[in-house]
Batch of 4 targets.
Target 1
Amino acid sequence: MTQNQPEGPGGPPGPEDRLSRLEAQVATLAEAVRALAHGLENVPSEDVPPEEAARGARLAHELLLSQGL
């Protein structure tokens, strides 16, 4: 039986490295969704400027771009 050891600098990332990267990506995605939802959470019947929704979308986009997603 072999153990899953991370390979050297030239080899593919090990399972722990991939899991850490995936966790960071999921956290970033959750933040982006939260920012987008915050921008869209107003009731449509209220008089809300459209800039608020655009601001949430822009923030979500910037979060994703900053993490290379």
Target 2
Amino acid sequence: MGTSAVIGVDIGTSSSKGVLVTMDGRVLRTATRAHAASRPQPGWVEMDASLWWREFVEITRELLEERGVTVQAVGVSGMGPCVLLTDADGAPLRPAILYGVDTRAIEQIAALTATLGGDDAVMARAGSALSTQAVGPKLAWLAEHEPDTFAQARRLFMPSSWLLWNLTGEYRLDHHSASQCTPLYDAGSQAWFEPWARPLAGPIGLPDLCWPGDVGGRVSVAASAETGLPVGIPVIAGTIDAWSEAVSVGAPRPGDLMLMYGTTMFLINTVPGPLSATGLWGTVGAFPGTHNLAAGMATSGAITGWLRDLLAAGDFTELLALADESGVGAGGLLMLPYFAGERTPIQDPLARGLIAGLTLSHTAGDLYRAALEATAFGVRHNIEAMTAAGGTIERIVAVGGGARGALWTQIVSDVTGLPQVIPTTTVGASFGAAFLAASTVTDADIDIDAWNPPADIRHPEPKRTAEYDELYALYLALYPATRRISHALAIRQARLGTPQPAHQ
């Protein structure tokens, strides 16, 4: 029969990743496909959903090249919350609109907030205020600007639920993803809130709800022929990638904070009960009875990728070495990381990136160091907003591609003054999806701490933390001091149709 294993696949912003894992958590094989989002206009961030399925098929077939393995179940996850509209047969009607980095629905956010009674009323019902992260305003934008497409829509998908549909024919969405479909979902009753959902969804039939670790369906004959997966094996419902990443490092316990180092930076604090706060997102968790305060920056790794391309550097290794040489404070530079607007905690899609203190003596290493420090300042800003809202942070676990390098995580610990646990496996969301898949097909009590034990702890260095305290005060002052100018430039960029890069 061979070694029993599970497959986990995640559709991310800049790549799709898959992992083949034994039932005791041993990674047998990984596979990756790089891609880029499309930016057809300033503030728009989209992706062709056919790419998601094509890469899933390619990744799965590559993983199945491992000999002597019998796949028992499949886990899926993906970026979100996204808006993919399809017809009744699941055929996409237009490219998917991505999560909070897509800022097209600013006017709809304001109008809908007023219609529903203000931020407090929306937060009381949905857990979060309306923002660029919310699904509802993007549906309103589509109804207003693309009425013919909207009239044809019958299904609403995210990457994880669309993979589930293609694999099984089942139309389902997990509760966590639904809780980010603000204001369609009632966080208290954990169900679609029809008085708000029906006017926004229009002709779209909303999916049935289940939990991320539930069996969403079983691999169909047609999907088996395409992917090579055995007919009839279970597919978990899955969820948004950041929450799957939190599962992958055992961070869904009260007091845990997952810090995801990726194209964007994401933070999830598990809290004892429902919490909401202006500027943050209150959601239901990945498991029944759990709740989160979440935060997300619009860029992080996207800036480092932009700098690498701008400086024509071959890879990140050289830039990291130069940034290490630059030292605390990047030679007197200070950067605002708002290169695609900013999500939490300022919720300002018109914010823009800024590098202050430039002189002719500054180097590539200084610039790269400033970018790493800027993301760390953004992390601290979000952590302070979480604790002010009632969140408690007892343990931070780092995950994602950026967590594999020592410098970036060390800078974040130095800036925040907080230690970070570095897990053995930082594969991320696909590993979390695989864990959920394994949990569905075994009677044994699978422990994520056994699957993915700690490998290291990044401790802050008090002297560097003291230096960063001074710089952080300047960081907090820089945004309000330049906000009016940044907004004017953002409006000018939109008017000129300034091309946007595809790093995110």
Target 3
Amino acid sequence: MKKALGTADDLSAANGDTILNRKQALGKANEWFEQQESGGAGIDPNIAVRDAIELTCEAGNAALAR
């Protein structure tokens, strides 16, 4: 399975989002692997803003309930 996490900072300065330095890339890769291991579906690039907000709120409420 392939997933683009961002672009290397070889030609442009890292911004932590779309252009990553080595440390940032490793961090994003670790987050992605943890999500996959926990059964997460990954990030859907076609998700609507409303749906993303609702999912974030649900995750926050679940964390508070623990």
Target 4
Amino acid sequence: MISIHGYAIVCRHDRIADANGAFPPVLMNEADWAYFQAELDRADLCVLGSASHRATPNRANRRRLVMSRGAEGFEQREDAWWWAPERVAFDEVCARLLPDGGRIGVPGGQVAFDYFLHESPPGLRFSEFHLSRATRAAIPDGRGLLRGVDAGRDADGLLREYGLMPGATRVIDADAGVDLTVYMAHPR
């Protein structure tokens, strides 16, 4: 069995990056970072977009799969496995990298989040989405968590629309105003 877990921290307007696509300092939070790293340590595979891969060195030496239109299909490179979703089905990738099933962590960015929320085959979509929110932070003209956020929708509504229901929200850093809600797959 494959379980897929997304992880993101957003500002109060559901933005994950600045207008240039970079992770902004206003979203850096030690409590969120510790939670995020502990969760990724539990993953058998981490799937992320090429910009996220380039921006975050793999210091923990986690097994990575990089989503990229620049990949030939599905290939192993020196730094990670690379995959072009439009050329190779994700179930083929899972059969090769996780033949006995496992936990997949998806730390972003927007393309990866959209793919596993509603573009991947049924059964290979988010089991859970761990959404931290920096409630005091703002990122004017930033990139949304999902394409729908860029079109004016809110992240909560989009996650619910695609079958993820929120659990209880808990404060992880009261001083910084950061909370965490885990959205779980709910049968439609």
